[in-house]
Amino acid sequence: MNGSGATGCSPWARAFLAVVSHILPRESRSDWIDAWKGEIEAAKARDGGQPVPGELALLRGAWSDALASRRLARELADARGETALAARHSGGLAFELRIAIRALLARPGFALVAVATLGLGVGTSTAMFSVINAVLLRPLPYAEADRVVVLRQVDADGSVLPGLSAANLRDLGAEARTLRHAALADGIHGLKLLEDGRASSLRAWLVSDGFLEALGARMALGRAFRPDQYQLGSEYAVILSQSTWETRFGRDASVIGRDIVLDGVPHVVVGVLEAGFDYPAAAEVYTPRPEQTWDEAQRGSATMDAIARVSPGASLEQVRAELERIAADLEATHPEANRGLDIEVTPLDEHLLGDARSPLLLLFGAVGLVLLVSAANLAGLQLARSASRSREYAVRLALGATSGRLVRLAAVESAVLAVVGGMAGVGIAHLGVRLIGTLAPNHLPRFDELGVDVSVLGFAVLASTICALVAGITPALRATRVEPHVALSEGSRGSTQGSRTLGLRDRLVIGEIAVALVLAIGAGLLLRSSDRLLDNALGFDPEGRLALQVWAYDEAHRPQLDYFERGVDRLRTLPGVEAVGLTSDLPLANNELLLTPGRRTRFSIGSDPLDRVGGPESALVGIDPGYVAAMGLSVFDGRTVAASDRGETAPVALVNRAFARRHFADRSPVGARVTLERDGQLSREIVGVLSDVRRHGYESEPAPEIYVPLAQVPSNGLVFVVKAGVAPGSLSASVRDALWSVDPGQAIWANRPMTELLDEWLRQRRFSTVVLTAFAGLALLLAAIGVYGLVSFSVQQRVSELGIRRALGGRTASIVGLVLGRVAVLAGTGILIGLGGSVLVTRLLRGMLYGISPFDPLTFAALTAVVASASVLAAALPATRAARVDPMVALTHSE
Amino acid sequence: MGDTREQRTLSYNELLVLQSLAEGCRYGFEVMSLTGLSGGTVYPILRRCEAQRLVSSSMEDADDAHAEGRPPRRFHTITAAGQRALGAAREDLIARHRALGLIRP
How far is residue A885 CA from its own chain's centroid? Predict the structure, then answer.
């Protein structure tokens, strides 16, 4: 016997054992290493007899031993686990859940595509639903909001005016039994609030007695106005909106009862409104509007936002009937101002949504189609999977599983998919909501409240569950109807699959292609409309221009023309400023960013007498000498406003080309005279013709306009147009400071690049277009995945058939043709159905289209081509794979 | 469970391993020497047969090992079930060899 030193195992053998032992469970490692050292040393110590294997051969044994031990340990653990699991939950849900998760994990590719499909469908539809939910479904934040109605005057020619006149509303409110709290809000005003000696504006609505009550306004702090505060000559009072209280007063509760100085007059703060109260729009403060002496004289101008609350028990029809009678009475008593008076009654929510409702519902319909496509895709996937699992089902049935149990297993599997897909969907929805938030038109009410809430989550859960269950159980039901011996023999042959399964998949793919085409054509029509629209010249270039609105008036509310003129002079000296102009009414302005008085006037031409009721009407815009250059307009005839046109010099006016076309036909209007309503007997000489502008964005047509010098027709709220040689946004601070340096006491109301104003006009359209295009793209992608899946599946099912064809000399081209031919039939059918559907559906888009027919042949043709080629492309990949099938592999293929 | 495994027919290599244990081999390397099989074959077979209770193993007495100046080794012995399986497999093998004419009666 040799000494231990000579027979010990070598250091590298020890190292090898130490390393290899790591594939074993930790607790058995050291025993295993010891045993192997013993084995090696015992072998070395052995003398004579049989030849002993060398250390290397033994270490190889050690390696195999370790592998085998590990495998056995795992099998044992699995067996124990499943036995225990089965014992605990025999037939129970947890057991099925575990089996389902395993089955899904066993095919990660399927699971991934299924979850992605479901997630995309559920995510986009949930994002869209959250928009619908925020805008359409959630009740307005007013008490019994469904009883609040908006009243608007309808003119003899059928045009709906912004509201009612104060006098008509007062008389109507006194008469009507079916309405309570008929009240008005008088145009949004800027009230000057001085902070640190510098003025800023608060947007204020003057509201008449009953307005807050009609909306059921609830106060977060303090109370509403007392009735006596609505009387002329009473103390000035103000109610703050929640956000004003937060941003301007730092949520200071002691503000109630305090005086704040607005427009130089102390107003006592009586209350703070609850969050969410924001009617008519964008209010920062509300002040009481007493009846005014001039109300009666203004009876004919229906400019006040009028609302009322329907009396308990009265129906909308009764309100309408009563108002019809009252309107007739008002017309009888004031025939001049109320000629042809009619009053329209609109529920508040309908009024707030206005034109937004139908595009939103349309988009929701579109997203419903996307969801449908993803459900169809999922069903197709499941069908494919169940076809390849029909053997598994058959074995289970043959082994005595009931078909009910198989359906339940499928349902559990679908539920797992639904949960995971739904979670992915909620994540996608979350992103989608943020995306939509950046795109959405800001005039949609309550868009800021957009988010994923309980009802949105509920929708996501519902959508994904229905999708997954329908898509999952159908194939299982189908599979369990198959006789086991048929499925077993069929499945083992790898021959053409049962035609019924593929028939359903075919129909699903046809449907997907059809839906994708409908969405694509809809999106295409919107895109082409946008193109057409942007081809329209605005008549000016908003690029590189800054707009600031300033309200400058003295205590008697007289406009401060001098301030504006000094402001223009000051701004011209700023570096980076190329031109500065002033106007009373800036194109593209809207009430949320800039106020648009939108002044209009009746006028007469030449010696015609002025008809103050039925005479021709035109927009009236005041401008200064710099305006035309600052806006980049051109003078077609005559001249523009000159510095020499002052209040004391001869009154002049300019017109635009649309005006000249309408009222002067081919003659030049220069030198003619025009009499404006506001001028009394005075008439003005027309001295020039300006180019047309599309004042209300691309969609508006240039309307006749009369321009007058601001020096002759002053206004207290004017817009500075600053043409910048640099990025206009970079100038806004220096421009503001320059104006403050002229007079810190004049409130700068808004300060924005004009391109932002343009964006506001384009947003609604852009929103619908971008969202629908995204939906169409998604549907097309899903349909392509559907085609790809169908073709690669059927190719796989037909491997041996294709192999035989190849073996018999079928050429690659003919085999590809065989596969593509089928896709062509499917795509062709889908496209035909899609074209038919598009003809039915695109008419819904009519209101959103511009300069294009809903049946535009070019759009139809182009997108048909897109969808067709997408289908072919999706089919081409698996088809070429089919062509490369090796006959030997194909004929021995048995899975 | 045990029944089905006992009735499993042994592979040729398993038969050789079990037979060498029946002949008195106790270590894997002795089985390798006697059968001419590699370590990569012998040890997994030992493990598998052990899992199927055809073979049992135990660690050598630590004192004995220390007396010889080495770590304790793992001993393998064939169980009664192993003997039965071996017997059945041996008869099957002999019958086949006879049928093939490898063994003359």
Answer: 47
